[in-house]
Amino acid sequence: MSTQPLPLDGITVVAVEQAVSAPFATRQLADLGARVIKIERPDGGDFARGYDTAARGLASHFVWCNRGKESLAVDLKDPRGLDVVRQLVAGADVFMQNLANGAAARLGLDAATLCAAHPRLVAVDISGYGADGPYADKRAYDMLVQCEAGLVSVTGTPGQPVKAGIPAADIAAAMYAFSGVLAALLRRANTGIGGPVEVSMLEALGEWMGHPLHHGMHGGEAPARTGVAHAVICPYDAYPTADGGQVLLSVQNDREWRRLAGQVLRRPELADDPAFATNTARTGNRAKTDAVVAEALAVMCAPEAIAALEAAGIACARLNTVADVAAHPQLAARGRWREIDSPAGPLRAMLPPITMPGGPDPLMGPVPALGEHTDALLHGLGMTDVQVSALRRDGVVA
């Protein structure tokens, strides 16, 4: 049992957050030991609570992004509710918000205002497109930002662009907000000053577009949409197997092609055939190359195909479903699953990917019910039962 504390033990975070970007960022902080106080509307809370009921009646997005937090349901439009949040911020190390552009500033909860009042505070503003510029007030849902950042233009098949199947823009912004907080806390440890942090979803996803963006800007063309195939390497695609599965393989050089041809395709003559011998030739003859590979794998079941490819030293993977990932033998062997508590009972969750050997496990606390911690937080600010009851009666808190 480790005697070391979690890295963010003793850090308090207050978050006026909703949906994915800020909640996912603060969940990383909670997993690493920070106390995260989540500010929610009394009338339904974070709207992600209502996205679906897939997690035993709870919303899957909310369960994913909000474990380990304390929920305070308070009306920020009421001066008494806003004062509660300001008192909490005064004692916090980090504040984070992802309200619509301008909304936090109108409440005095933007990073610049808060850091001016509390120099040690690290305050994070997450926005869709940034605080200024012609897009500043544009609505910025994940799919829209994926389109604006060009991700959709390079994802999909030649005939059909598609968005990523996960909220890539939200996740990108969340992870830059997370790392921005850690950097600012380190700076504060050295200087005593926290300071504002700004992250926009467009700029975060724009950074992730680095390869196609630089390829297109500096004399080339943007990579073509090729499904799961690779634009300039062949064979590099998913191929059907006899049991209805699909196996993806990647041949990175001509030596690997020789091994694939001889040991898996059972057609060693293709190693020196001018139509297939080099990657340039195989890419130019992509349809023929894919047909040869598909024919060989079509008579094998997926485990047989994987075994044959691995024996030949060819990089490969199964095209797994979500259910396959939940039962993945590697995750099971490494003990990456835990149970977390929630209002619906225990739920399975994956350990966060930051592993610190020799240290304690991430916190992975319960998923909070709306307003579950309201009374305790208000009492922690010195309010009496009578004062809390009055706020409840007036609908300021829930």
Entry keywords:
single chain; 398 residues; alpha/beta; six-stranded parallel sheet; three-stranded antiparallel sheet; 17 helices; 13 strands; 39% helix; elongated
Notes on the structure:
This protein is α/β, with parallel strands linked by helices and 398 residues long. It has helices at residues 21-31, 60-66, 79-90, 103-107, 111-117, 142-148, 168-191, 201-208, 210-217, 254-264, 279-284, 286-297, 302-311, 322-326, 329-333, 374-380, 385-393; strands spanning 12-16, 35-40, 69-73, 94-97, 122-127, 156-157, 160-161, 195-200, 236-240, 246-250, 315-318, 337-340, 347-350. It has a six-stranded parallel beta sheet with strand order 3-2-1-4-5-8, with helices on both faces. A hairpin with a 5-residue loop joins β9 and β10. The longest helix is centred in the middle third of the chain and has 24 residues, at 168-191. The model has no long low-confidence stretch (mean pLDDT 96).
Overall pLDDT: 96
The profile of the biggest β sheet is:
6 strands, parallel
Strand and helix order: EHEHEHEHHEHEEHEHHEEHHHHEHHEEHH
Secondary structure category: alpha/beta
Provide the helix percentage: 25-40%
What shape does the CA trace take? Answer: elongated
Strand order of the largest sheet: 3-2-1-4-5-8
DSSP E strands, number: 13
Weakly predicted, low-confidence segments: none
What gyration radius follows from the Cα positions, in whole Å? 26 Å
**Proportion of residues in β-strands:** 5-15%
State the end-to-end CA separation: 39 Å
Total helical segments: 17
